[in-house]
Every structure is written in C-alpha cells, then in structure tokens.
Amino acid sequence: MNFHHGPNTFVGQVDIRVQNLDRSLLFYKEMIGFQVLDQTETTATLTADGKTVLLTLVQPEDVIPKQSRTTGLYHFAILLPTRADLGKILLHFIQAGYPLQGASDHLVSEALYLADPDGNGIEIYSDRPSSSWSWRNDEVIMTTEAMDAQSVLDEAQGATWNGLPADTIMGHIHLHVSELRSTEEFYKKGLGFDVVCRYGNQALFISTGKYHHHIGLNTWNGIGAPEPPANSVGLASFSLIFANSEKRKNILEQLKEIGATVTEENGYFVTKDPSGNRIHLLVK
C-alpha cells in the first residue's frame, strides 16, 4: 500500500528558516541532491522530480540562530524509494566526509541522521516492506538499533549518487512539542490521526492508514518548552495533504470543535498545534 496517497493524510512539504540562503542551497543541492524549482533573494523551493515542492528554504530578515530547548523541528524525513538508494547516499556522505549524527535500524525502516549547516535536523530513510512490520495491540513495533551499514552499502553495488531520485517524497516530520496530552487530542480528534506507537510518556508516533508514522511528537526539549522566536532558524511550517475537499472540510470542523484556531491565508487554511507548530491544510 502507498501510505502517501489518498485516502491517507500525510506530510507534503516542509518549510524551514535558515541563516544564509546561499550556504543552505549549496548544502541541499550538492550534499543532499535536491533541484531548485524556484528562487528569490530570500527563499528557494526544492524538488526531487522537477515539479513537486518538498522543501522550502526561507531566510528571514534579522534572522537569529537556532534556539535550544524550544518547540519546533526535531527533523524532517526524506523517504527514498529503495534501500539501494539509501546505500548510494550513505557512500556519498562517506566520500564527502560529511558528519552523520546516526545510522539506525528501526525494524520498519533504516535511517541516516544529520543536520544542515544551521542545525536543522534531517532524516534520510528507506522503508522495509510493510508486510514485514510487526504490530501488537494496534501499535507498530519500532526500535532503535545500529544500522548494518555494510549491508546497506552493499545494496548500492558501488553505484554513484546522482541526486535524489524523482520519486523521493517527504516521508514524515518529527516535532518538539511542549506536552503530550493536548497535543494528542489535537492530532487525533482535530486532524484525524491514530496513535501507532508510544515511547513511554515522552513521545508519540501517529499516522493514517497504518503507516509506521507520518508525524512524530516528543517532549525531549522539556515539558513546557516555549515556542522559538519567529525569526529564528527552524521550522516555519509544514503541510498536510488531504484526499479531497470533503475530507478537509470535515477536519476543519473537527478542529473548531476542539477549540483550535483555523485561519484562511492566501487561499489556503492554516492551523497551529498547541505548541505553535504551524500547519497548512491542503488538498492534493
């Protein structure tokens, strides 16, 4: 099953703030392999297939560095089509000498972790077949073990990394939040997601259509963590894609029922979770 098409709800695009657009563009083009779709003096939209925006870079006026112990982006996660693609980019990072923060086996997926020049977190991963995932009491079993890096590299058979494959997508987003109770209510009762995994009382993983997660939520920056300033490096917004207008209409009503604020800006609907993470509500 394709977990990033209707009837599922999924993350389509992530918008992040950076300190220096030129520096960030060099990184995202040369190191990650994005193409630039559109660019101004202060923004750039990035794509893998030449038409679909996956990531937007924004350089705010009077921008300040990433603020610690705040809500916002933990990482955005780029989903590669195959394990061989993961092997190619791992070899690319090794050859380039770019530092990785981790390389993990989560049972449902295998993932590389790194940060851009501003400290924005990035995961690059490939999924294992969903038929191999294990479930217990409606929760998917995930863990964090060391990746078998040699096996992943072997999968690539020494092939050269030539940028992100055209069918690369935004697989999920993982957010720092200030607490989990009202956050869970917002994403479940408001946006219609299901909790598919809990890590104690510190993290939730949620999805639609039995994906291992479309969104991760954690309190690892501290209970009561504040929102970062609007001009700091980090998450500007992300978009959720709904299957059709009727589905989005129902979601808008659910959000209003739980007291969430929904506004209309430039022809699209915007809401914020209880920690101030900004979400665009779009239809495919």
UniProtKB/TrEMBL annotation:
Gene3D superfamilies this protein is in?
2,3-Dihydroxybiphenyl 1,2-Dioxygenase, domain 1
Does the record's keyword annotation contain Phosphoprotein? no
- Please verify whether the record's keywords include Metal-binding: yes
Xref: Pfam families: Glyoxalase
Which of UniProt's keywords are assigned here?
Metal-binding
Annotated GO MF terms = lactoylglutathione lyase activity; metal ion binding
> Where is each VOC domain found?
10-127, 169-284
**PANTHER family attached here?**
CATECHOL-2,3-DIOXYGENASE (PTHR43279)
The name this protein carries in UniProt is: Glyoxalase
Q: Which species does the entry assign this protein to?
A: Heyndrickxia camelliae
